[in-house]
Amino acid sequence: MDIVPEITRESITNLIINDKREDGRALDEYRDISIETDVISKAEGSARVKIGGTQVLVGIKPQLGSPFPDTPDLGVLMTNCEMLPMADPTFEPGPPSEDSIELARVVDRGIRESELVELDKLCVEEGKHVWMLFIDLHVIDNCGNLFDAAELAVMAALKSTKLPTASIVDDEVVLDKENTFDLPINNEVAMCTFVKIGEKMVLDPSLSEERVASARLNVGVTKEGRICAMQKGGAQPLTKDEIFAAVNIAVSKTKELVEYL
C-alpha cells in the first residue's frame, strides 16, 4: 500500500483547489511530449515516448501464425507490458502485477476498439496463416501517467512497423525480407488520463498527483473524436458531470496528441 504523508496530500490538494499545480501547469495541460521512432534496430517497429519525466519504450515483433477459429481471415494483436524495477521502486521483478496487466489491457483496448490496424490485410492464407503482432511495452521511467505515454508509444511503433512480403508457394509460406510494406494503419488514437483530487479533475497527473488522487479515468479517443475505450480506477465514484467534462477535454486534446505522431 502506498502511504502518502498527510502534509504532502494537503499541499497538493490545496494547490488543485486553487487551480494550480506543483509544476505550474493548468489542470488540463500536458507536460512536454516527445516521440522517437525506430529506436530498436532488431524490431520491425519501435518507439520511445516521453511525457515529462515518464518514459515508455515499445517494440513490435511480427510472426506468422494460425488465426483464431472465429476470425480466420484476421491478423492477431497481443500486448504485453513489463514494468522494470529500475523505473519505480514500487515495481517488483517476477510475474506481471495487477497494474502491469491493467496497463496492457487498457492500451490494447484503445488500439483494438479504434480499429487502428487493418487486421484483414494481415491475412496471408485464410484459416491457415496470418500475421501476429506482438507488442512489447516497457516502462523505463515512471513519473506518472503511464497510460497516455504507453498508448502514444504503441501507436507510434505500429505506424513505423514494416512487414516482409509473404506468399504461398507449394503450400508453404515464403517471406521476402528484401521487399517490405508498411503495416496497414486505418486510424489514429490517443489516451487521455484524468485523476480526481479534491473536487477537481486533473489531466496528465504527475506521480505525486496520482498518489493522492481518489479516482482515475482513462478515455481513449480516435482522431475523429469517437470514444473507443474507457477505464475507471480508484476507490471513489465519479459524477456524470465529471465524466462528461473529462470526455470533452479528451476529445479536444486528442487532436493535439495525434499531431505528435
UniProtKB/TrEMBL annotation:
Family to which this protein belongs: Belongs to the RNase PH family. Rrp42 subfamily.
GO cellular component terms given for this protein: cytoplasmic exosome (RNase complex)
Name the UniProt record assigns to this protein: Exosome complex component Rrp42
InterPro entries found in the cross-reference section: ExoRNase_PH_dom1 (IPR001247), ExoRNase_PH_dom2 (IPR015847), ExoRNase_PH_dom2_sf (IPR036345), Exosome_comp_Rrp42_subfam (IPR050590), PNPase/RNase_PH_dom_sf (IPR027408), Ribosomal_Su5_D2-typ_SF (IPR020568), Rrp42_archaea (IPR020869)
Organism whose genome encodes this protein: Methanobrevibacter millerae
Cellular localisation: Cytoplasm
Subunit text: Component of the archaeal exosome complex. Forms a hexameric ring-like arrangement composed of 3 Rrp41-Rrp42 heterodimers. The hexameric ring associates with a trimer of Rrp4 and/or Csl4 subunits.
Principal location listed in the UniProt entry: cytoplasm
PANTHER family referenced in this protein's UniProt entry, alphabetically: EXOSOME COMPLEX COMPONENT RRP42, EXOSOME COMPLEX EXONUCLEASE RIBOSOMAL RNA PROCESSING PROTEIN
Matching Gene3D superfamilies: GHMP Kinase, N-terminal domain
Keywords: Cytoplasm, Exosome
SUPFAM superfamilies reported for this sequence: Ribonuclease PH domain 2-like (SSF55666), Ribosomal protein S5 domain 2-like (SSF54211)
Transmembrane segments: none
Annotated Exoribonuclease phosphorolytic domain residues: 29-164, 189-252
Job description of the protein: Non-catalytic component of the exosome, which is a complex involved in RNA degradation. Contributes to the structuring of the Rrp41 active site.
One annotated GO molecular function: mRNA 3'-UTR AU-rich region binding
